[in-house]
Design brief:
Helix content is 32%, strand content 24%. It has 10 helices and 12 strands. A hairpin with a 2-residue loop joins strand 4 and strand 5. The N terminus and C terminus are likely disordered. The structure holds S-adenosylmethionine.
């Protein structure tokens, strides 16, 4: 490029630093974008061939439309290149390989559209609903006193929405942890990033564990989408692991979904059995009776009537509480 400016002031081995700097420039420019479902995204971008001058940043970084270099401020273009996050399409057109979304005035880096790669980093309508559930919980429970863990953190939006002194973000996808680290840096947050399966990397007791794990049976086995057996395998594993890691007054807030077959909810049945076995308290709410209805056309869902979105709270029943109950007349 040979132009003086952002590129030259960066260490060449610092794509993370370039992305943090790009995020700061977008924030300074007042950038906002609400991430939508893949189906809505596809319909909206089908309306135009490339980004235009009006609303250019949202078209480039939100909708991921092809763009001409002159549309982007040079410093932003240089940072995109320094991060290796732009593809040359030919004919003088480029496309950002990443997206930025906003949630509650905060900016989140996530994967470019379409998110077909197995290691894509998710951010979508479920992220907004998940964070709303966390906020509702915090409004009554208050700020957790102790470690907060967001398992399957993706961009980090769930864990970063909790104002905790000690935050651990875990994911099985290293790219998710890389993006979550960038998003945390943008918010000036110190977090611990832990790679691994479910809660395996977490040993210290947690005051609050939040999770929006994959909950579908995904033929492509994408990490952000495939929830294992019936789509609920990972949710159940997280619930089991959480009971071994929650502090006595701790809570697991699990935002997930389950197939319903002839009125039977396999996730509720399995969680109720787990809670009974482990002496835990289960609160289970169906928050949407019918999501991802297009999945019902797939062979994996041939026996399902619907897919229900649920919010689950699981709490250990403490020794003290048990003892108090037993000593009641
Ligand atoms: C639906 S995405 C949600 C991401 C984020 N929590 C949000 O709400 O935007 C599910 C996330 O779980 C991660 N994941 C999938 N399998 C996992 C596993 N076995 N252990 C930990 N994380 C996992 C994926 O990589 C992905 O980031």
């Amino acid at each position: 490029m040979g132009r003086p400016g952002a590129l030259e002031s960066l260490s060449p081995a610092a794509p993370e630093a370039a992305l943090v700097q790009l995020g700061r420039l977008l924030q300074a420019a007042g950038y906002t974008f609400t991430a939508v479902s893949p189906a809505s995204h596809e319909r909206v971008v089908a309306r135009r061939l490339e980004a235009g001058a009006e609303d250019a940043l949202r078209q480039i970084f939100g909708w991921n439309l092809p763009f001409r270099q002159a549309l982007l401020p040079p410093a932003m273009f240089d940072l995109l290149r320094a991060a290796g996050a732009v593809c040359e399409l030919g004919g003088g057109r480029w496309r950002a390989a990443i997206r930025w979304a906003t949630l509650a005035d905060r900016l989140y880096l996530h994967s470019g559209f379409p998110a077909h790669a197995a290691d894509s980093v998710f951010f979508g309508p479920d992220t907004y609903r998940f964070v709303t559930a966390i906020r509702q919980y915090l409004a009554t429970a208050g700020t957790p006193a102790g470690q907060v863990v967001d398992v399957g953190t993706g961009s980090g939006a769930g864990g970063l929405s909790v104002p905790a002194a000690q935050t651990t973000l875990t994911d099985i996808n290293p790219l998710a942890l890389r993006y979550a680290g960038i998003n945390a840096a943008l918010q000036g947050r110190q977090v611990s990033l832990q790679a691994g399966d479910g809660l395996a990397p977490v040993s210290a007791p947690a005051a609050l564990i939040v999770a929006n794990p994959p909950y579908l049976m995904d033929a492509g086995r994408r990490l952000y989408r495939d929830g294992g057996a019936l789509g609920i395998g990972l949710s159940l594993r997280i619930a089991e692991q959480a009971l071994a890691r929650l502090a006595p007054q701790g809570t697991l807030l699990l935002y997930t979904a389950t197939p319903i077959e002839r009125g039977h909810d396999p996730l509720h049945a399995a969680l109720a059995a787990l809670a009974a076995r482990r002496g835990a308290r289960l609160d289970y709410h169906e928050s949407d009776p019918d999501i991802w209805s297009e999945e019902l056309a797939r062979p994996a869902y041939r026996h399902a009537d619907r897919i229900a979105l649920v919010t689950v709270y699981l709490r250990p029943i403490t020794q003290t509480a048990d003892a108090a109950c037993r000593s009641d007349p």
